Amino acid sequence: MFDIGFSEIVVVMIVALLVVGPERLPGLARKAGFWAGRAKRFMQNVKADIDREIAADELKRVLKDQSGTDSMYDIIEETKQAVADVKGSLEETSGAVREQVKGAAADAGPEPAEPETPEPEYQVKAMPESPPAEPESAHDKSGK
Fold first, then answer.
1. Which pLDDT band holds residue 98 (cuts at 50, 70, 90)?
2. CA distance to 12, 58, 62, 73, per residue, from 69 (Å)
3. Is-above-0.70 flag for pTM?
4. In this structure, what DSSP letter does residue 4 have?
5. Quick count: other Cβ atoms within 10 Å of Cβ 16?
């Protein structure tokens, strides 16, 4: 914005020293620093406000673009319909497979008996329901 170099600042300080004088120069520098800080904070606030407005406009634009697309409800309904279609075709296919298996089983004859499984050689003992009673000790708990 402003193109002020070091040499220009030195010239301004010398002129201020000659015009204001050495007694009042520190107070003037303090006030100039105060007002420069205030101006800087004001510019930062203005910049932050402009950035917020730009972000709000961009958000409005995105929301407007998304309003033209299908709503979430429509997408859910389409998904439910697709799942129902797949489920129906699976049921038809499983019914046809069952019929083919029944037909093949009827052609093959009676089913062979299942072999018996042998009993395991070990036995599992049941745990007692309550822990065994502790034997009473010869010493009383009071230490006598």
1. confident
2. 62, 18, 11, 11
3. no
4. -
5. 15
Q: How confident is the model at residue 109 (pLDDT cuts 50, 70, 90)?
A: low
Which single residue is written with the structure tokens 């510019």? 43
From residue 78, how far is each of 63, 65, 91 by CA, in Å? 22, 21, 20
First and final C-alpha spacing in the chain: 97
pLDDT digits (tens, 9 = 90+) for 27-68: 988 999 999 999 999 999 999 999 999 999 999 988 887 776
**Residues comprising the chain, all counted:** 144
- Give the span between the Cα atoms of 25 and 19, in whole angstroms: 9
Distance between CA atoms of residues 100 and 120, nearest Å: 38
Residue 126: how many CB atoms within 10 A of its CB?
5
Residues 6+ away with beta carbon under 8 Å from 25: 16, 17
Q: Please give the Cα distance from 66 to 75 (Å, whole number).
A: 14
50, 62 in Cβ contact below 8 A?
A: no
Q: Is 21 left (phi over 0), alpha (psi -120 to 50) or beta?
A: left
